[in-house]
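Researcher: Next entry in the queue.
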Amino acid sequence: MLFKGFTKVGHPTTLISAFLYFAIHCMIWTLVGALGVFIANEFGLTAGQKGLMVATPILTGSLLRIPVGILADQFGAKKTGAVLQILVLLPLFGGWLATDRFASVIAVGLLLGFAGASFTVAIPLVSRWYPPEHHGLANGIAGAGNVGAVLAALIAPRLAEIVGWRQVFAWALLPALLTLVMSHWFAKESPNRPAPTRWSESLKILQESDCWWFNLFYAITFGGFVGLASFLVIFFHDQYGLSRVMAGNMAALCVLAGSLFRPVGGYLADRVGGAQLLSILFGTIGVLTVGVALLPPLSVVIALLFLVMTAMGLGNGALFQIIPQRFRGEIGAATGIVGATGGMGGFFLPTLLGLMKDLTDSYGTGLLLFAFGSLAAVVALQFLRPGWQASWLQPALQAEQVSDSSR
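Model: Structure for this entry, 407 residues:
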């Protein structure tokens, strides 16, 4: 069986370290969203300002993924990750000691992008330890560090009620320092890391049309996930009148689904093929999001959002089963570029929701536009899959089948 073979290869301590690193830094990355109701109440923000505040860390985290991915190829993912973990301490100190106005909150959000770039380190660090037939599961486990967004939504509002929202940034320094130490001692670079290439060589993948399709698809799956993860606390509080802590609880429940099912998506993609799985998932996301856009009763919308986030988590795992097959030698750069665009989707979604709320007095309009984008991706995949299977995707799947039959 595939999972039995998985346990016999790779580097377990590196996999665990990468998961913990991404989890803690995903938590830090989404802190502003988790604390958004507290901050908005203090500064009297409009819906548009709330959306911008929540989206700002996602924007810089996304843009940083491109240079960070290339640096991971150049100098190694472990060294690059160590520098990022030190830089993340800056916005935590800033959020604790220097947030006296809305502009300073935006500045802290910009610096929190260092935490958002952690994904671009975790995936190359893990991926190079595992053969192609196990990329889906390995990258899915590392990517399940998205669960950090659950921790932010669950813990941050509770802690803020006790010590104040600024002190939450101070408390976040503790796990940040702990992961820095753990990554140093337990994570290892793979001996299979390819020789460094020039930046111009790494960026040549931008000339590949497949790279841009991956960008679009990840903007829907991961962008949708992180955008909703950051905005759901505000959504539940504003739309359904939940308390700040209860809004965090409901957001955490929905975000948990997307986090836990990412490894499942990678595993299923290893078995049935990532492109086939993505076609189903994009349709599911689109249809379910239409239901959310109708703003049904709270119990219904929670169930729908749970399923939407589940499908997004599965889609994240499926997509990063495909990408290492297509860009094996440039996995760091590919992860950075695709991860950046995915994060841009996460910036776009809360900004869109806040803007449409101001313009139409409803969050449903923005949700409906996102649903149409997901359904359009289903159509695009139907045209792309035959060409992928004829060139690079089908040979990889055949290799996996041969590997499975030999066990």
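Model: Residues 395-407 have pLDDT under 50 and may be disordered.
Researcher: Noted, moving on.
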